[in-house]
Fold this protein.
Amino acid sequence: MCLSFQSLFPFLLQYLKFKRLFYYFEDVVASMIKWFTEKDEAVKAKLLEEFRTVSLPGQLDVLQQHLGKADYFVPSGPTFADFSVASMLFTIVKYFPGTLDKHPQLKEHMDRVHALPGIKEWVAKRPESQN
């Protein structure tokens, strides 16, 4: 069986969107790790404030643009990217309550992912942790 480019094109577009989002997600996590792992409390406070007021709002804007009005980041349904972003958003909201108030689609996305069968049960009984 020979697959044509036309038959693979929708799959390739979804794959590329997933890869682009996942690389962006890595950038967001890297900016979080800077302040999260800093040992010097004065430097940590400065990095945390910079993340909260400068980096994070722009990063959330970009993620919300990627999501748009869709339920998931890739049209075929939830992927590892959705699980990763929902987990990261949960951590961000834990540290910065109200952060998603200006990003309602991301809040709805996080809630939607956390309501998926299997995920919902795990979220309900997971142990409390620092992150």
User: Anything to note?
Assistant: Helices lie at 5-37, 41-67, 80-95, 104-114, 119-125.
